[in-house]
Amino acid sequence: MSFPSAPQPALFGRLLLTGAAGGLGRQLRPRLKAHCTHLRLSDIADLGTAAPGEELAPAALERADDMLRLLAGVDAVVHLGGVSVEGPFEPILQANIVGAYNLYEAARLQGVKRIVFASSNHVTGFYKQSETIDARMPVRPDGHYGLSKAFGENLAQFYFDRYGVETVSLRIGSSFPEPKDRRMLATWLSFDDLERLVVASLTAPVVGHTVIYGMSDNTTTWWDNTAARHIGYRALDTSEPFRAALQERQPALDASDPAVMYQGGGFVKQGPFE
Ligand code: 15L
What we know:
This protein is α/β, with parallel strands linked by helices. It has a single domain (about 10-270), classed as NAD(P)-binding Rossmann-like Domain (Rossmann fold). The protein is built from eight helices and nine strands. The strands form two sheets. It has a seven-stranded parallel β-sheet with strand order 3-2-1-4-5-7-8, sandwiched between helices. Strands 6-9 form a two-stranded parallel ribbon. It is globular, with a radius of gyration of 19 Å. Bound molecules: D-galactaro-1,5-lactone (15L). D-galactaro-1,5-lactone (15L) binds near residues 84, 120, 121, 187 and 265. The site of D-galactaro-1,5-lactone (15L) has 9 residues, from loops.
């Protein structure tokens, strides 16, 4: 006997997505809408027009009053906002450090209980590509950007220990339509797996502060997520179909090049900045 399947109810009332105009924000925007009744979208860049169920809420992370308003009435946050590449310290300080602090303070004041924080593999970018690491090992940031994400993870830990705000910090590898170079055979995270990871992070019953690497089920891997299995994330994609073409494109790698030696790739060589 079969039963007609009833439409699944949205899990969340109102979700907030920061950085909604960015590369990953644009991917997650339609995907997260399926999991909530209202999706509030924020960025300093243009967000286009609101689809049904969307709320456009432009806001600057470095403005505490903007953040307080932004988090009102929100059940959970997916925080992608801020600078997402290596660069001079001042913009990273404002958007990623001051901004993350303002977001967590607003979460505390508005009673928001769960944040999914887009951290980065660059928190541990100075581990060698010959090492397999897990999220309990000491951080080794590879620049200003990695340092700011390490701050964000510490902030998340503090707000859980002190105020009970739960976070899953996603040390995202390389989330692009496909891996662009041989390094990304290890770091690639498909957009579908990104969605699975974010939804698992939002819906796992108890997370405290969990740190998990964001990668697909790649054959080459530097990261061990065993300690984060309670999140319930299972990658279904893999970089393997791209291997042959990438090896053909980059047949020889210079093993003495820091971008080849270290997990952070080219980020480890950037700077100093004026
Ligand atoms: C990141 O954190 C960046 O946001 C992204 O642009 C990629 O460069 C990625 O890391 C990576 O390590 O490939």
